[in-house]
């Protein structure tokens, strides 16, 4: 049996808010600190496949 994620069914912003990482993530975005933004997104259990589109949507990477 696998453990369910505490973030299941939440949006990215909801995950960041619940984890108290919302401001840290958007500060990393504002500072263009890609590595820090990725680390924060991984803390809220986002997959590598979902992180790139998020970074693209906030202007940190171009695809």
Describe the fold and architecture.
- The protein is an all-alpha fold and 63 residues long.
- The chain has a domain of 38 residues.
- The protein contains four helices and no strands.
- It is globular.
Annotate the secondary structure layout:
Elements: H1 12-18, H2 22-30, H3 34-43, H4 48-57
Helix pairs in contact: 2-3
Keywords:
mainly alpha; 63 residues; 57% helix
What is this entry, summarized?
The chain is mainly alpha-helical and 63 residues long. 57% of the residues lie in helices and 0% in strands. The protein has a domain at 20-57.
Q: What is the assembly state of the chains in this entry? A: single chain
Share of β-strand residues: under 5%
Helix content: 55-70%
- Secondary structure class reads mainly alpha
* Order of helix and strand elements from N to C terminus: HHHH
End-to-end distance: 37 Å
Low-confidence parts lasting 5 or more residues at pLDDT below 50? none
Task: Outline the biggest β-sheet.
Answer: none
Mean pLDDT: 92
How many β-strand runs?
Answer: 0
What would you call the shape?
Answer: globular
Q: What does the radius of gyration come to?
A: 12 Å
Tally of individual helices: 4
């Amino acid at each position: 049996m696998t453990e369910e994620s505490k973030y299941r069914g939440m949006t990215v912003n909801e995950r960041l808010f619940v984890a108290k990482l919302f401001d840290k993530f958007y500060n990393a975005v504002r500072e263009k600190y890609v590595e820090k933004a990725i680390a924060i997104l991984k803390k809220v259990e986002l997959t590598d496949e979902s992180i790139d589109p998020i970074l693209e949507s906030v202007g940190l990477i171009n695809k």
